[in-house]
Amino acid sequence: VSSNATCKIHQGITMPSSILSATTHDGYYTMDRMEGIYNRLTMVVGTTINMNGRTAGYVYATIPVGDGLMPYITGMLKIFLVAVIITLLVSAIAVYMYVYGLTKPLHEMTELTRSYARGDFSKRIDIDDNTEIGELAQCFNSMAQSLDELEDSRSSFVANVSHELKTPM
User: What is the rounded distance in angstroms from the CA atom of residue 151 to the CA atom of residue 115?
Assistant: First the structure.
């Protein structure tokens, strides 16, 4: 802006005297539309150009508010999204491992139940745990031991009865 308040680059723009006066005294710092010069909110910094003790002109640096903030907002959003995705993945893996550890004895009991249904009572659950699941596994092993003993007794009884029936009196 020249000393007569007209812009040499932007033809047809005349700087209001209030802005020139503020620039001359303290420099100009604002975030507004500069009394209608800009259509949208703009950050403006202005200073005077002095030559030989006289004001030769004015320099203003401007940037629309949205243009200046969008790269920062976009960068922060990307960082936030990456942090959220990493947190969710780590949390999902931790939860999976925890739940797997809790349900593993139950899956083993399910498999052993199928084995017991087929008549094989020799397998046991190997758990060194003091939780409710560990107690359940101990009870399950105790039940399997009792069933194994009962099956041995039954087999022995059937064998003895069969032998006695075959032997003449």
Answer: 14
DSSP string covering 94-155: HHHHHHHHHHHHHHHHHHHHHHHHTT-----------SHHHHHHHHHHHHHHHHHHHHHHHH
Its pTM stands at: 0.47
Which residues are CB-neighbours of 49 under 8 A, at least 6 positions away?
55, 56, 57, 58, 59
Edge-to-edge strands of the sheet including 54-64?
A: 28-32, 42-51, 54-64
Query: From first to last of its 169 residues, what are the pLDDT tens digits of the chain?
Result: 565 566 666 667 777 778 888 888 778 878 877 777 777 888 888 888 888 888 888 888 888 877 767 788 889 999 999 999 999 999 999 999 999 988 888 888 888 889 888 888 888 888 777 788 888 888 888 888 888 888 889 888 888 888 777 776 5
Tell me how far apart the alpha carbons of residues 77 and 84 are, in angstroms, rounded to a whole number. Answer: 10
Neighbours of 58 (CB within 10 A): 20
